[in-house]
User: Which sequence fits this backbone?
């Protein structure tokens, strides 16, 4: 644990600008600070795109499969696979370094209304509905008082095979425990290739299904492959989404809320690699 003290001290400085200057210092022990920040949006003017882009980015991590690799896995697939032991090591590093998990509503209120965030905020997200995100991912997050965001590909719900996927009951449990359930299309179709019919099959129907499972509104979306098409971004808002997540490419200057950046935590990373990747990738503002 001692080897992360230096990391924590450095990161506290790097992320200090996420906090209002007159804010009281957060208590280090408050690692369960994941409740949504309530903002009086009636009396607070929403920020414009330029203001949102100028706010310091909050680190957002992306995970896919949490399992050991096999001989049949391609070299490319290794970026999307992290061993369970390594995932646990990385979550321990975040906890030891003083990070606090946040959820999309908190990030939205920070970006749009300037709401206060916990000290050293970070968002932990999972794509594609893999069951190991529930059995390994969720159990590990619980250990450290973290919450996660699960982007569900609805075609896979309940499927079993070479890769097992989460059931409706597991998705409901994640939601009931305070995690966020969000959309990742029906069958992972590339957003840039959407036809008119896809807005129903890839967006509206998955949203309805997830809302039926959780009993809660689904207002967040992650693009398959991290790929978006600028000309279609306004349609996501029309279909009920407050924010959407890409990967590490540049944000759209007109729709920064619909192109929030994430980075993948590759299975080859050590905890130290991840720590420095977080700070290198998100320690910047755009004027």
Assistant:
């Amino acid at each position: 644990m001692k080897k992360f003290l230096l990391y924590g001290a450095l990161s506290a400085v790097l992320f200090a600008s996420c906090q209002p200057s007159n804010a009281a210092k957060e208590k280090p022990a408050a690692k369960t600070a994941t409740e949504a920040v309530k903002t009086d949006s009636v009396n607070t003017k929403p920020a414009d795109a330029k203001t949102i882009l100028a706010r310091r980015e909050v680190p957002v991590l992306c995970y896919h499969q949490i399992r050991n690799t096999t001989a049949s896995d391609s070299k490319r697939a290794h970026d999307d696979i992290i061993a369970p032991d390594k995932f646990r090591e990385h979550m321990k590093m975040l906890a030891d370094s003083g990070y606090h998990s946040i959820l999309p509503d908190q990030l939205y209120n920070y970006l749009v209304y300037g709401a206060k965030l916990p000290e050293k905020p970070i968002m932990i997200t999972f794509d594609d509905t893999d069951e190991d995100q529930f059995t390994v991912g969720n159990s590990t997050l619980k250990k450290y008082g973290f919450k996660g965001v699960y982007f569900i590909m609805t075609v896979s719900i309940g499927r079993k095979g070479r890769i097992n996927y989460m059931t409706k009951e597991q998705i409901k449990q994640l939601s009931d425990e305070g995690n966020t359930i969000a959309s990742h299309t029906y069958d992972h179709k590339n957003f840039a290739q959407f036809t008119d019919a896809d807005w129903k099959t890839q967006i509206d129907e998955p949203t309805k299904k997830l809302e039926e499972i959780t009993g809660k509104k689904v207002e967040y979306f992650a693009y398959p492959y991290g790929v978006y098409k600028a000309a279609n971004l306004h349609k996501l808002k029309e279909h009920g989404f407050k924010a959407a997540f890409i990967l590490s490419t540049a944000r759209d200057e007109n729709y920064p809320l619909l192109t929030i950046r994430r980075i993948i935590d590759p299975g080859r990373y050590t905890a130290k690699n991840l720590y420095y990747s977080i700070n290198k990738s998100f320690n910047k503002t755009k004027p």
Notes: Confidence is low (pLDDT under 50) at residues 1-37.
